Amino acid sequence: MRTDRREFLIGASFALLGAASKRKLWAQTPADVRLEIAPLKLDIAPGKVIHTVAYNGGVPGPLIRWPEGKPITIDVVNNTDVPEIVHWHGLWIPSDQDGAAEEGSPMIVAGGQRRYSFTPRPAGFRWYHTHAFAGHDLKRGGYTGQFGCFYIEAKQEPGAYDQEIFLTLHDWNAYMGGSGDASMDAFYDYATINARMLGHGDPVKVREGQRLLFHVLNASATATHWLALAGHEFTVVAMDGNDVPRQAKVSAVRLAAAERIDLLVEMNRPGVWVLGETRSDFRRAGMGIVVEYANQRGEPKWIGPPETLWDYTLFAKQALVAVEPDERIPLLFASKFHGHGDFDYWTINGKSYPKTDSISLREGKHYRLAMRNKSSDDHPIHLHRHTFEVTSLDGKPLSGLRKDVVVVKANSNAEIDFVAGNPGATLFHCHQQSHMDFGFMMLFRYV
Amino acid sequence: MILLVLGFLALRPAKAQDNYEIQVYGSDTVAPKTTMLELHSNFTAEGSCPEPGSRFTAEGVYPTNHAEHETVEITQGVNSWSEVGFYIFTSARNGDGWQWVGDHIRPRVRAPDSWHWPVGVSLSMEFGYQRASFSKDTWTMELRPIIDKQIERWYFAVNPALERSFHGPSVPQGIGFSPSAKFSYDFNKYISGGLEYYASYGSITGVSSLHNQEQQFFPTIDLNVSPNWEINFGVGIGATASTDHLIVKGILGRRFDWTHHRAGSSDSTQ
Hints:
With 447 residues, chain A is mostly beta strands. Helix content of chain A is 9%, strand content 46%. Chain B is mostly beta strands.
């Protein structure tokens, strides 16, 4: 049922926009950015080749660095044999440009192309990625290499760092395996940073005394990752591209699928170190990169950080005065068992997409989503086209932490607030591909 | 009479485990740094009886009728594709007390997930001793290939086991064939119901007559209340003259994770 609806949208897109736009766009002036979606044989280490789909023949796709408020045009050419679509994650742009078929953005037919036109905002670390359905085909959608970083430059950036480095985490060769919650989940053979396995990519070269700013994106289709830099601490300065109200030092950071984090590191311990997954299984699978100080040689060293539990509240302010929203929207997340040999299906308030309720929003109103996750999985929840503020976690109020993805932990409650300031259909979903594909989505509509 | 008994024994298949561990194996192995502790409790409601005036059956072993067999199985995960299991077999029967029966050790390997085989495959090799008063074949070995597959709510497993006795009357028969199989259906997340089949056909070079084969069918229930617990319950019906006719079996297993990582932490893969 779920795929039927999506296929209907895809079909409608073809009929209305596909062929026509194909003819029209070629005649236009060259776009600011051009992305070509095509199959790729990706070398992640000697002898390890991933057959995937990517942008412009590389993973990640090209870094798009663009001033806030300056209009941009992006031509996307789909040189695969299936419909595709590109979502501009974290940007406040219109629904038909956002790149989600459910909101009304047209799919790009196989062999076709589409021009996206919008004004990038807000400033900060955003990203772009496919928003295509994968279902049981773990070689499509977010399981592929279709992602890239989109950095929107603020008019005034302090630039208090010596080097700026973008790191993208991804997992490869997904397969269905039995998981601890008695249903199937996606597991992976390999994990990479910037598409190379640990020890097989170019090291990050640094000098003692430098301040490094890492922009880290977890572009995994489903997996959560922990990162640490051996012998160093991170100062968390932004989450999902938005400055945190309270910077804090940590020895390891957690990123769920689609989350981003900006980290400052004082390079004060010369050596050759591993920046990698804190868990040895993932480092063995490849998730790591070498950080090499000038004039330092030798095997990269790993020092595990102390066992850490992630706590968003470290980076938020205490909420002193409770601000009441105009409307509180309760959302209950639950799983629907489909056998120990299948993925779970998912419901929001008892219904799976496309049967989920469509919530009405009025422009300018302040809404609170009161989320209760009664499943045994964590869910990185994403709201399209808006930034929200995390206002409480398991009853603990907080303020100032602005994000577009937040993890609602298993058997927990979380509340997020947003102002309906960007009219148009707005998708809300779990960013785990295997969850959103099996019902964990709903639409907000402005009335 | 003696000749008749000897003749019968020669035709009986070598069955090392009898009613001590009644389980169709799945291909998965216990995770590293994890121990699985299982208790197999099997009560034979209708089984072999002693010869008149004797404590033993015609085969010279303790009877199974109204015997309670308790087996402790301890399995330690070695790495992501192997484990080692150890068994302590015991038997309790009115008048015979509670007795140690024997011990087995069982290393097992499986096709790693990274091979992406369309079915789960593993291979176990079980070797051990049981007292002659419980089995005339005292030293035995079993090679058990395991193939299984879960498709949505359906689960299938087959264990075409080969057995060999190294000391006892079944030595001349060579390798025996003792297959078992299972299918089950997930009624919901927590309850699966199915049917298990256990057989012993005799030697691979000379299949026993149906009368002398062992064939048992167990309607079973599996309760999946937690990833740390394994609960299986079934009632078995013997379909041939050489099989115990009615057995009630239960398996209670508890998994112990020795890594002591907090779920969701930077060190935990849970």
